[in-house]
Amino acid sequence: MFEPVLLRNVDVPDGHLLSTYQVGGGYQALTKALGEYTPDEIVELVKESNLRGRGGAGFPTGMKWSFVPKAAGKPKYLCCNADEGEPGTFKDRIIMERDPHQLIEGLAVSAYAIGAETAYVYIRGEYVTAIRRMEQAIAQAHENGYLGTGILGSNFKFMVHIHRGAGAYICGEETAMLESLEGKRAQPRLKPPFPAVAGLYASPTVINNVETLACVPHIVMRGSAWFRGIGPDRSPGPKLYCVSGQVRKPGLYELPMGISLRELVEEYAGGPLPGRKVKAVIPGGVSAPVIPESDLEVGMDFDSLAAAGSMLGSAGVVVIDDSTCMVKIATRIIEFFHHESCGKCTPCREGLNWTVKVLRRIEAGEGETGDLEQLEMLCKGIFGNTFCALGDGAAMGLRAALKHFREEFVAHIEERRCPFH
Amino acid sequence: MTMREEIEAAAARYPDRRSAIMPALMIAQKEHGHLPGPVLEDVAEILGVERVWVYELVTFYTLFHTEPIGRFHLQLCDNVSCMLCGSEALLKHLETTLRIKKGETTADGVFTLSTVECLGACEMAPVMQVGDDYHGNLDNARLDALLESFRAAERVASVERAHPPSPGE
């Protein structure tokens, strides 16, 4: 029987208060980490757990930490990516609003592991409630000796600061976030150097997602074998799935990695609305290529979704039913990426502008023969030719819509109208 | 705290004062409602940073407003999850009720209507942010009730603006 851990406090009244968190065993992981483990042993423990980053890329967390140089010298920074802008995603907001101490404890244990004394939590500017709850929780943790100097009688010193974003999706890209933290326009950096070597203020920096950090205290308390025992060995652990769209029970579900998309949508989220059929599901935020209904058996983990030509991404599961036009969905998604392109790389900035124009005219019934080939050419021109993954996500998503729902695009062009209107 | 003190407190969180421009702009916008040129220059002067560094942020991030906006900024999400749950009809309802198009402000300066990208609250789609608050599971009736509550709050605020309490009260 799977026991939720990440969401165990979210429905508890006053789950955001320190007293509630302490009743549930809060800050015992930090006590255990400081008392029983060296920093290197924490890194090893997280490596053994096979925890992979929950922000979208799925990079092994312990390995990321091990890239931080051991040498003293420049200060090391821990940054928490709480920018959560991927459409269809709301898991990090719920953790921060309803169980902020879980994140703060994860930050403290992770900072101890990598040797950081300062963390910045970059929270998107719209999340005002999350920001207030986090600030309140940081103050409470500080007053009670879980943050500050000489934490829990050790010589570990650590402080957390909130940095409020201001409405730019691109800040979820880790190097753009670092630029933003340095007070600049959020335009991604060319890698290398990787942030672990030269990140924030050119110092060694680790950037982890909220959910990733929230897993860390549980790994310390329950062990790496427990974590690896949940879901597929190469992509294990408890996972938060954000379900939305045309589905009976939208919401946040904590279930094992690797659960089938069909089980998630049909059993946990209640299936389609009355009288409707599921047509397609976006499994990991709008950057993730759409999965047609016939392929819903796919496992919700990094490797299974990659093998199916999509990705787990942020696990923003958007359910689309048979009343909805896929050309319209594709157009809306590309409009989003066009709006959020930072403008640095020409293929993304200009390519998405052209792509939006072609898609809008197809949706309006003004498409022409050759438009689909032009869309494919534009995708080819964008994919792989930009500093960051924003353009790649747009191109992959559009390619998948063209592949799985080509007949809808063709019908728009041939009938010179949207068949769904 | 004065605006200057608040900005100084924010700057103390970073090793480089340039990092404090974003928080300083948030503080200044809260104080002034929007960010006209002289306010941007104040921010640059308080932090001791290049003015162009301040201008380049204001023109990049969508939550900063260089022009005045309505006292209630209705920010309706129209990204995929909200669209699937009916945000287009809600936008039409707001445009009809307020007699403005998206991007516009009512003549009395009370409401500005915008559509925004995903607010990260898709479990309660369709969603609208107004000020600091999210309003979810919207339909026309809920929108009408919300607009009425904003108008009522505005009536109280306008009386207070016309008759400010004397310092002794």
From TrEMBL, chain A:
Pfam families the UniProt entry points to: Complex1_51K, NADH_4Fe-4S, SLBB_2
Ribosomal protein recorded as keyword: no
GO MF terms held by the record: 4 iron, 4 sulfur cluster binding; FMN binding; metal ion binding; NAD binding; NADH dehydrogenase (ubiquinone) activity; oxidoreductase activity; quinone binding
InterPro entries on file: NADH-UbQ_OxRdtase_51kDa_CS, NADH-UbQ_OxRdtase_suF, Nuo51_FMN-bd, Nuo51_FMN-bd_sf, Nuop51_4Fe4S-bd, Nuop51_4Fe4S-bd_sf, SLBB_dom
Catalyzed reactions: a quinone + NADH + 5 H(+)(in) = a quinol + NAD(+) + 4 H(+)(out)
Uppermost EC category: translocase
EC nos: 7.1.1.-
SUPFAM superfamilies xrefs: Nqo1 FMN-binding domain-like (SSF142019), Nqo1 middle domain-like (SSF142984), Nqo1C-terminal domain-like (SSF140490)
Obligatory cofactor(s): FMN; [4Fe-4S] cluster
Function description: NDH-1 shuttles electrons from NADH, via FMN and iron-sulfur (Fe-S) centers, to quinones in the respiratory chain. The immediate electron acceptor for the enzyme in this species is believed to be ubiquinone. Couples the redox reaction to proton translocation (for every two electrons transferred, four hydrogen ions are translocated across the cytoplasmic membrane), and thus conserves the redox energy in a proton gradient.
Family as reported in the entry's similarity comment: Belongs to the complex I 51 kDa subunit family.
Name this protein carries in UniProt: NADH-quinone oxidoreductase subunit F
Originating species: Sinorhizobium medicae (strain WSM419) (Ensifer medicae)
Automatic annotation (TrEMBL), chain B:
PROSITE patterns: COMPLEX1_24K (PS01099)
Residues annotated as binding [2Fe-2S] cluster: C77, C82, C118, C122
NCBIfam families linked: nuoE_fam (TIGR01958), PRK07539.1-2 (NF005722)
Top enzyme class: oxidoreductase
Cofactor-binding details, from the entry: Binds 1 [2Fe-2S] cluster.
Membership in a protein family: Belongs to the complex I 24 kDa subunit family.
Key words of the record: 2Fe-2S, Iron, Iron-sulfur, Metal-binding, Oxidoreductase
Species whose genome carries this gene: Sinorhizobium medicae
The protein's name: NADH-quinone oxidoreductase subunit E
EC number of this enzyme: 1.6.5.11
Matching PANTHER family: NADH DEHYDROGENASE [UBIQUINONE] FLAVOPROTEIN 2, MITOCHONDRIAL, NADH DEHYDROGENASE UBIQUINONE FLAVOPROTEIN 2, MITOCHONDRIAL
